[in-house]
Amino acid sequence: MNTAKVILEKKFRGGYYTPSDVASAITNWAINSPNQTILEPSFGDGEFIKAIISRKKTLGENIKEINKSLFGVEIDFNEFAKVKNFCKDVYKTKLEHLYFQDFFEWYKNCGREFDVVLGNPPFIRFQNFPEPSRTNALLFSESNGIKLNRLTNIWVPFIILSVALLKENGRIGMVVPAELLQVSYAGPLRKYLIDSFQNIAIFTCNELIFENAEQEVVVVLASGKNQKISGDENIEVLETNSKTELITRIKNYKQERKHKYVNHSTEKWTKYFLNNSEIEFMRGLKSDHRICRFGDFFEVDVGIVTGKNEYFLINKATAEKYKLQNYIKPIVGRSYQIKNEIFYSNDWRHLWNENKPVGLLDFNKLNGHIPQNVKEYIEYGELLNIHKGYKCSKRKQWYKVPSIWAPDAFMFRQIHDFPHLVINNAKAVSTDTIHRVRKKKERQFPQVLFYTYITAASAEIEGRSYGGGVLELEPTEAENLLIPNPNLLLDKSFNYDVSRKENGKFLLKNSQFVLKELLRFKKLEVDMLENIYTKLFLRRKNRN
Question: Are residues 128 and 218 in the same domain?
Answer without folding.
Answer: yes
